């Protein structure tokens, strides 16, 4: 009887423990994922899982979004931890962070995902201020100490219209406040002027207008891809995001083999 129970216990463990995720291929560049305003790094989970499954080492930056300087410092620490080349990926305000941090010599490519790509001296604040007349104003709520969030009631429709309502509402209720110093942080040396870049633009983005994203992408001479989706399409469609990241990651190798 004891042998039977031991065999059953062994079989139960064998079926209940999930297989380990395949280890990353150290010959591939490390993908460093930088989140934007109002969210944190957990939104990259779907993209992370695909990239790891495909053999890429991945680091997810938990930038504090208090100031551009702090966020760049957090990203630089992640770049320093990577063993070799880095593909730097930024969503939304994360695009500002990678524009400033991406001049690091370890960075081989930049990927902008529904993101800002400012030029020298520009900030999110200055880009928004130069928006054409009639552009919709975001329902930003400022706390007494100057921290910024989006109106929770309007967040699902504006930020995450292609997600299940309960998921979008959770994101609204778990927002990471955005510091005014991050909003005002200005770029010193735009990395896209010296590094190849890719830009993935969701056609239904209500946070950063697609026309504005196209303008920034064209200025950066980026490889541009479009997909349907909201500002949160990196959560709703991680396969499209992973695909453009892998395109950027393999471009250097393909060019060397020509």
Notes on the structure:
The protein is an alpha/beta fold and 258 residues long. The protein has eleven helices and nine strands. Helix 2 crosses helix 11 (238-256) and helix 3 crosses helix 4. The chain is globular, with a radius of gyration of 20 Å.
Radius of gyration: 20 Å
Q: How far apart are the first and last residues' alpha carbons, in Å?
A: 66 Å
Question: Helicity range of the residues?
Answer: 40-55%
Side by side, the strands of the main sheet go 2-1-3-4-8-9
| Helix count from the secondary structure assignment | 11
Shape: globular
Average pLDDT score: 89
Weakly predicted, low-confidence segments: 1-21
Order of SSEs, N→C?
Answer: HEHEHEHEHEEHHEHEHEHH
Strand content: 15-25%
Main β-sheet description: 6 strands, parallel
Extended strand count: 9
The secondary structure category is: alpha/beta
SSE blueprint:
Layout lengths: L1 H15 L13 E5 L10 H9 L4 E4 L6 H14 L4 E6 L2 H8 L5 E7 L10 H6 L10 E3 L4 E4 L4 H5 L5 H9 L4 E2 H5 L12 E6 L7 H10 L3 E5 L5 H4 L1 H19 L2
Parallel strand pairs: 1-2, 1-3, 3-4, 4-8, 8-9
Antiparallel strand pairs: 5-6, 6-7
Helix pairs in contact: 2-11, 3-4
